[in-house]
């Protein structure tokens, strides 16, 4: 299927690795010009080179910096001639016990996982509406749907973003102008980040990394971890010209791990 995105411009945050990179890769494959961001310049440039090789017909611009800062956002937006597609993404805050988190920890989580996406939406959404096309995808977490007790910082910040989006996405001046805002909720995906988390669990329990990963996969009805490429493909579908009637939704991609009806 032609997604109808050729020649569009996308800003994909935190996209040198993992799920953000997979989203950028899928969009580039559909003929979308991309601005990719990350804090690590070396990994970001490697990804940019790989994306350019994937589709020499598009422009790929790499902007190193922290998207959770005002300067980082300004630099990323300045590199994008117009933002037709915005993919909000940021690393999750660390796990722990809420009794150990001070105010600074909460503010950092809110800045990265709630306020930064809102600031980027604010900077781009009205121009999208004026042009009559816009797609915003927020990468949040399956923990928004089924909270994990040790991820309280993430649960709180991402749930705040989810509530904000639920109201904004349904404004007629956006939805009625072909601007959609949706949240994409990943479960367990085979990424570097998950590997580090599972490695820490293995060290604590005395198991091998392979054993811990196999146990995690066995708990998922699909009997496997998700692959970043399939996450990126779904992101591209949400950004497509055919997805204009889909907005304000939380789409869970977790291999069936969430046990609820709704």
Automatic annotation (TrEMBL):
This is SDR family oxidoreductase. It comes from Paucibacter sediminis. Coiled coil: none annotated. It comes from the Bacteria. It holds the Pfam family adh_short_C2. Belongs to the short-chain dehydrogenases/reductases (SDR) family.
């Amino acid at each position: 299927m032609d997604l109808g995105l050729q020649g569009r411009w996308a800003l994909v945050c935190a996209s040198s690795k993992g799920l953000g990179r997979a989203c950028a890769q899928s969009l580039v494959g559909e003929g979308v010009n991309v601005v990719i961001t990350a804090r690590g310049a070396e990994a970001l440039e490697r990804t940019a080179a790989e994306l350019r090789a994937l589709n020499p017909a598009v422009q790929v611009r790499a902007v190193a910096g922290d998207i959770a800062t005002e300067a980082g956002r300004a630099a990323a937006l300045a590199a994008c001639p117009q933002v037709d597609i915005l993919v909000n993404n940021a690393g999750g805050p660390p796990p722990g016990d809420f009794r150990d988190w001070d105010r600074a920890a909460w503010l950092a989580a809110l800045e990265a996982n709630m306020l930064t996406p809102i600031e980027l939406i604010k900077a781009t959404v009205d121009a999208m509406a004026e042009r009559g096309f816009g797609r915003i995808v927020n990468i949040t977490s399956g923990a928004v749907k089924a909270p994990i007790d040790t991820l309280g910082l993430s649960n709180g910040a991402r749930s705040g973003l989810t509530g904000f989006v639920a109201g904004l996405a349904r404004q007629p001046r956006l939805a009625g102008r072909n601007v959609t805002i949706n949240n994409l909720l990943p479960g367990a995906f085979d990424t570097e980040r998950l590997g580090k988390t599972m490695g820490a669990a293995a060290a604590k329990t005395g198991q091998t990394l392979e054993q811990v990963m196999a146990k995690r996969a066995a708990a998922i009805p699909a009997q496997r971890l998700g692959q970043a490429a399939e996450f990126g493909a779904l992101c591209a579908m949400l950004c497509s010209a055919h997805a204009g009637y889909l907005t304000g939704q939380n789409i869970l991609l977790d291999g069936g791990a969430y046990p609820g009806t709704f």
